[in-house]
Structure formats: C-alpha cells, structure tokens
TrEMBL record:
UniProt keywords, alphabetically: DNA-binding, Transcription, Transcription regulation
Alphabetized GO MF terms: DNA binding; DNA-binding transcription factor activity
Taxonomic superkingdom: Bacteria
The species this protein was found in: Maribacter cobaltidurans
InterPro entries the UniProt entry points to: ArsR-like_HTH, HTH_ArsR_DNA-bd_dom, HTH_MetalResp_TranReg, WH-like_DNA-bd_sf, WH_DNA-bd_sf
Name of the featured protein: Transcriptional regulator
PROSITE patterns: HTH_ARSR_2 (PS50987)
Entry-linked Pfam families: HTH_5 (PF01022)
Amino acid sequence: MKLEISCTRAEADHQQILRCKEDLNRTADSIEDVSRLMALAGNEVRFKILFLLQKEIELCPCDFADILEMSVPAISQHLRKMKDAKIIGARRQGQTIFYHISKKNEAFFAAILSNIQSKRKIA
C-alpha cells in the first residue's frame, strides 16, 4: 500500500514544529490525566451521573438508579470506575454512601457541564 502525501506546503515552519513538540512534551502528564478523565466521563451513563452530581452536589446509588431507571448494581459499577479514577469521592452516613465530584475535579467538570443546555418547551 502506497502512502499518499496530501500536504502541499512549500516549506515547513521548523520553529513552529519544535514549539509544538515542546508544548506537548511539557504538558504530557496533564494531557494524559485529562484524556483519562474524558474517556471515563465519555460514557453516557457516567456523564449523566456527573451532570447530576454537579447539580445536586451528592447522591446515593439508589437515587441514581431511580433517576436513570437502572439497577443499583449497574449504577454501582459506573460509580466504582469513577471512584477508582478519583473522579468522584464518597462519604458514608450510616448504611448509605453518598457520592460527590472530587474537589480536585470540581472546576474541570463545572466548566464542561456548564455547557449543557436544557430544552425548554414554550407553551
């Protein structure tokens, strides 16, 4: 298979290429962290959970199950993945565990989730 080159630039901007490579090298750890967060949050159910936590501050697995019309074990799997990645945190009150977005990720998810628009029906 022959690789076709479609770039038609006359001359590469070597300074720009070096600058971009240096930027990627300097930010590699942050890019990796954000990429991992986005991969986990990219699942629709987990994104909905994060959206709900952004609005309500904290909820328990039963709340999520009722709201999302899913089983508690299914919700718990999603919560565990996000908790293991430290996207969310938890606190226990008696037998109930309440989940919240971790302090470390509050601003990140607030910026993303603030762009969610509600569809309002006008009568």
